[in-house]
Design goal:
Helices cover 38% and strands 23% of the residues. By secondary structure, it is of the alpha/beta class. The protein has a single domain (5-265), classed as 3-Layer(aba) Sandwich (UDP-N-acetylmuramoyl-L-alanine:D-glutamate ligase). The radius of gyration is 17 Å and the shape is globular.
Amino acid sequence: MTLPVALTIAGSDSSGGAGIQADLKTFAAFGVYGASVITALTAQNTRGVSGIHVVPSAFVTAQIDAVFDDLDVAAVKIGMVVEFPIIAAIAAALARWRPKHIVLDPVMVATSGDRLLSTEAVSALRERLIPQASLITPNLPEAAALLDEPVAADEATIADQGKRLLAMGAQAVLIKGGHGQGAESIDYLFTPGDVLALRAPRIATANTHGTGCSLSSAIAASLAKGQTLETAVRNAKAWITEAIAAADRLGVGHGNGPIHHFHRFD
């Protein structure tokens, strides 16, 4: 049996809960072979980030070319892109290799609310990467940051933001509701002419480190296996909900711990 291949382009999390490490765990959980391109090394744990070492953009290009030159990549997930030269390098390389599926998780806003990308980098994200994406997966603060406006507080505003993000050129937009309020966490999938609301119970836990990374990777893995976008998003939503619910069983670290990527194998 030949496993489908998914590639993650993202930053490394030394504590293993998010970034490249979370992506590779997710690929494995979905039965997909994972390859990786590292954009930055971070010194971090469940309590926070203490340092970031950016990988030179030319070496990001070298990693992408090495993977595509040898592996049959069925889907790509993009996470932490750090800065303008890296965004430009990723966009140029993917335009050359033209993978069938690109899932872009626009990591732009820290948990503290701080912006993680410069104005120049955000413009490059909008103009160079989003138009190549099969799907972008912003949370509520990231959707607002992409549009330079306040975070949506109601369904009508989310719908308006989703349609305008779709107009930036991506084939589909998934606005994640994890930062919302209420008993349910509702994600909205926008495709041309349609909006699908995906509901799940909101789970009371502090152990949600790597949730966004893992959800986008789960979607990419499912697309790599040949599933439709709607099926891939539904399956990923169900899996991530279970992984969050099982997170407290891990007991990793003393801060905001990771989700349980392998909960279905317990």
